[in-house]
Amino acid sequence: MMPQPDPTARHVFVYGTLRSGGSNDISRFSPAPQRVGDGEIAGTLFDLGAYPGAVLGGGGRIKGEVYRIAPGVEVQLDLLEEVKPDGSGEYIRREVEVEVAGRSIACLVYEIHPSRIAGRSVIASGNWMARDRGSGSLFMP
Length: 141
Description:
The protein is mostly beta strands. It is 7% helix and 44% strand. The chain contains one helix and seven strands. Strands 1-3-2-6-7 form a five-stranded antiparallel sheet. The N and C termini lie far apart (55 Å). The model is unreliable at 133-141 (pLDDT under 50).
């Protein structure tokens, strides 16, 4: 008999340091998240120095990865992203639909608080992992 998936598990879209190979690679969390695939969402990606911040919506695209996570990992992510119940933290947890391999998956995503992006550069490619490759992907809005 095949093991049943955890009904309390959710999906998360990661676009920055939590991506595979990033400084906070989500695969290091416990219990281990399960990679579902690559995805993209509508939004703008900002370079905040050591990590990015996403603003959802608009005509831009943000590239990332989708993982299935247990509730305990969601709690760890909220702590890492400094989510506050009143919305005043560094990031705000949202839910968006992400297209992955031809299907739409409801995913958590961490959107940067609007107060954190003033004067920050946009990563035009929408790809945090490719930002330093000399592609000229940064510009000031």
